[in-house]
Predict the structure.
Amino acid sequence: MTTRTFTKMAAPQWLLDMWKEIDEKTFGKGFDCFAENAVCNLGVADWHGRETIRNNLRAFIDTGFTAYHEVVEFWDSPQLKIFHGKVGMTFDDPAVTPKRPSMVHFFYMDEADPSRVSRWVGAVGPVGF
């Protein structure tokens, strides 16, 4: 068993920068928060490497919607960060109703460089039943 103490605080700038890159569809320096060999598991995704994460998220976001990430709460510990938020999804097709599902993300920090994320595990939605 492992015990960790968390502090509820404002989301750090590195996380806000990453969400901004996704929201603005720029996919630039905001992804520098990831270690080069980071692993990302979003739903069924199993992406390995910072550039793979960046490129696959770009491809996903470019499938017909724009996202806007909102912070609900952020919990901090040295090795693990927990983010709870909402993501507004506006679709290119005006016939599709906008969605705003909940999301939770776990960011495991790199042991060699604790300023970088080594593993990102997240879940969003569902967007409907």
User: Anything to note?
Assistant: The chain has a mean pLDDT of 95. The helical segments are 13-23, 50-61.
